[in-house]
């Protein structure tokens, strides 16, 4: 799990767990609270892993949720024949690349109407997460490319996956965690900084954003 410090990404916690176990995610989040994370995260970004979201709602119920568009696109397209995947992918991009939530919803409706009859299962995978796929519109536009997908997280752990894959079966639990920690701390200084760092205090203060634009607060 990581956080931002100004414009930099920082590691907050590391533990091993059983796949997408709710209990494993719960333990990680409770450990963060124990170590002083008193303010719930404003937004959590992840794929459809049920354990991640179940534990989030238990420990940080007020945190907003954003589903990953990269994973969702793959899930939807995998339920469609290859002959229509390229065209359908373009229509999915029209949703999350829209300038406003209203335009995104219009593109969303178009996708449902266009593919819903012939590819009901694919469309159902999209529709069930509609609200949490569009949550990013309530955050600064400068942050959208960081929070629409889990790609920043995936790239962070690419080196860890590569090294642990090479040494699979040769490490104990303790040495495996130690190696992952060292690799992540070494890579941390090279992680790409976040755009729109000046917006972070505004989010913490609870200032509203609509379609990525800061809303002027009425005078007291």
Automatic annotation (TrEMBL):
This protein's record includes keyword rRNA-binding: no
UniProt keyword terms in alphabetical order: DNA recombination, DNA-binding, Transposable element, Transposition
Top-level taxon of origin: Bacteria
A GO BP annotation: DNA transposition
Alphabetized Pfam families for the sequence: Transposase_mut (PF00872)
A single GO molecular function term of this UniProt record: DNA binding
Xref: InterPro entries: Transposase_mutator (IPR001207)
Family to which the UniProt record says this protein belongs: Belongs to the transposase mutator family.
Protein function: Required for the transposition of the insertion element.
Protein known as: Mutator family transposase
């Amino acid at each position: 799990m990581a956080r931002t410090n100004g414009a930099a990404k920082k590691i907050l916690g590391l533990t091993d767990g059983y796949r997408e176990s709710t209990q494993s995610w719960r333990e990680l989040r409770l450990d963060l609270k124990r170590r002083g994370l008193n303010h719930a995260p404003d937004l959590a970004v992840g794929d459809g892993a049920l354990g991640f979201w179940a534990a989030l709602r238990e420990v940080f119920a007020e945190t907003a949720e954003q589903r990953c568009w990269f994973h969702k696109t793959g899930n939807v397209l995998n339920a469609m024949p290859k002959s229509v995947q390229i065209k359908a992918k373009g229509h999915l991009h029209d949703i999350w690349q829209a300038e406003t939530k209203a335009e995104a919803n219009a593109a969303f409706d178009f996708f449902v109407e266009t593919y819903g009859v012939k590819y009901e299962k694919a469309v159902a995978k999209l529709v069930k997460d509609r609200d949490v796929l569009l949550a990013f519109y309530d955050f600064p536009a400068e942050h959208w490319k960081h929070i629409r997908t889990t790609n920043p997280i995936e790239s962070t752990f690419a080196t860890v996956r590569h090294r642990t894959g090479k040494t699979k079966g040769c490490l104990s639990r303790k040495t495996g965690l130690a190696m992952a920690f060292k690799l992540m701390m070494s890579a941390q200084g090279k992680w790409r900084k976040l755009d729109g760092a000046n917006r972070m205090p505004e989010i913490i203060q609870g200032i509203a954003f609509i379609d990525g634009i800061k809303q002027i607060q009425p005078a007291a």
